[in-house]
Amino acid sequence: MIGQGEIQMMKDVIIQIASQMAFGQPLVADNLRTIISQSILRKALNDDWEWCSSDRATYDFKHADGFRLIVKQTSSLQREQSQGHRPSSASFNIESRDAHLYVFAYHPVPDSSADHREPAQWQFYLVSTSSLPDGKRISLTDIQRTGEGPIKYSKLAATIDHFKNQRRSSWQPRGLRLVE
Asked: Of 71, 76, 70, which is closest to residue 34 (Cα–Cα)?
């Protein structure tokens, strides 16, 4: 019979192995890169923010005052691409509108120095939900015209706080009636 200590040790080893497989290489698979970009944002934000994303969540972070963020990410160089492959075009899904602010995380490094786990290699853009165009996707070019950025990791939290405080009166996303 296996004891509780051995079971916990096996679970810890499995977590370690799975983590190494998922995040142990500089280029992270698209579905896991979302976790990386949200982890980078979580590390940047102060403790007044709750990381509340899940498979069914309609937003990713919520501030103690009710302000909500959605994080969307893409990368110039994808793990699934072969060497010498042309960098992918940058566009983001914007179907969910249940937040006040979109944080678009873009990893622009197109060569072998790319490391999705490195916060300083990411660029961030902020666009209020009410400023998003109709449709299901937005290109990086449109984000650059509409939003604020690029923002470096070191300035991200301060820029989000400034954005949130400046636009306090216009928090309500299009088509959404927020109940506090």
From this structure: 71
